[in-house]
Amino acid sequence: MVANASRDAAHWSGPESGPAVSRGKNIALVTEDLRNGGIIGVALGAREAAAVMGWNLKVFDGGGSPAGRSKALADALASHPDGLILCGSDALENSPALAAFAHQGVPVIGWHAGAHPGPIADTPVAMNVTTEPIEVARLTAMAAVAQSNGHAGVVILTDSHYSIAMAKARAMEQVIRACAGCSLLEVRDVAISRSSEQMPAITRELLLRYGKRWTYTLAINDVYFDDAIATLTSAGVPSDGLNLMSAGDGSASAFLRIQARTYQTATVAEPLNLQGWQVMDEMNRALAGQPVSGFIAPLHLVNVDNIAVKSDQKLQYDPDNNYRAMYRRLWSPGS
User: Fold this and answer.
1) Most buried among 100, 179, 302, 309, using CB within 10 Å?
2) What are the residue ranges of helices labelled H in the chain?
3) Cα 305 off chain centre by
4) DSSP letter string over 107-176?
């Protein structure tokens, strides 16, 4: 599984047909927190696609707090959009606010808005764009087992505010527990929105508690590692003394760390720019009254062996499967 996921997805496996674009639509994109590299990547991809479609895309940032998220959703509703994209926020948690959009006939598409790809039950979200998080998490944990030859001492970092994060953490935990020679040291709940203030102290605490038994950290997002590196360095931990692996999303800082062989050795990098195009395509289908495509991008593991080949100048995973041309063809038949 690790070997297969380390190869690039060179062939388009997404939709082959869809409705033409009606130009001039106004789309609101509400983000959980624009400090999150995955969210930024999707937002940039959506903006790129919007320019091709002749749509107006306005971004509302929740800033990583409940109050900020509520204001962003309220501001988005007040802008009278034709469609809403919920990016990185839990749809069930925000179902009352989303119901207001549905009441006005505004379709809703999500990215990482729930634990699984597809429509989200009991919400207006017609399609949640994501790779399958359980498989992402299993792949990350299997990479740790394989790299350690079955002797990983693991700490898992997650955020209980999000169902997708908890689903990932449970899947990683199951894989590590199934490895006879591995040890699960701890599952730590750390809010992504508070990572910068909490991770330095948490990293020091974990080093004191587990010492050399702690050899792998599996996290539900790369952002935790951004805030732990300085502490590891100041504590004298060598760059190969602790392996950091992330079950998403393949941020620029993660790519830099993997390239430099500095602590982080792998990330399951979602094709963020492609997914930005996909949320816009799913929105186009919803506005046209057609079913969503349901496309799920293949998993891709970025590690020290393939990063020199797979990364590009933007320091993100952008598959060479011609997705831009494919979506252009869908939106403008005969072009």
Assistant:
1) 302
2) 2-5, 37-53, 66-78, 95-103, 133-147, 163-178, 195-210, 223-226, 229-234, 252-260, 272-287, 307-310, 323-331
3) 22
4) -EEEES-SSSSB--TTSSEEEEE---HHHHHHHHHHHHHHHTTS--EEEEEE-TT-HHHHHHHHHHHHHH
- Order of strands across the sheet with 108-111? 56-61, 26-31, 83-87, 108-111, 125-129
Q: Residue 124 carries which side chain, given as an amino acid letter? A: P
AA letter at 185? L
What are 254's two structure tokens? 């993660």
Structure tokens given for 144 = 């740790």
In the structure encoding, which two tokens stand for residue 166, read together? 């908890």
User: Which tens digit of pLDDT belongs to each residue from 102-137?
Assistant: 999 999 999 999 888 999 999 999 999 998 989 999
SS3 310: helix
Token representation of residue 132? 């399958």
3-state SS class at 230: helix
Cα 119 to Cα 167: distance, rounded to the nearest angstrom: 17
Strand pairing report for 125-129 and 183-189: unpaired
Q: Is the dihedral of CA 84, 90, 95, 96 positive or negative?
A: negative
pLDDT in tens, 14-38: 999 999 999 999 999 999 999 888 8
Q: How many CB atoms lie within 10 A of CB 324?
A: 16
| Whole-prediction pTM | 0.84
**3-state SS, one letter per residue, for 38-61:** HHHHHHHHHHHHHHHHCCEEEEEE
Contacts with 108 (C-beta within 8 Å, 6 or more apart), sequence order? 83, 84, 85, 86, 91, 98, 101, 102, 123, 124, 125, 126
In angstroms, the Cα distances linking 273 to 16, 38, 72, 177 are 19, 9, 23, 34
- Contact between 248 and 219 (Cβ < 8 Å): no
Lookup: tokens for 73: 């959703």
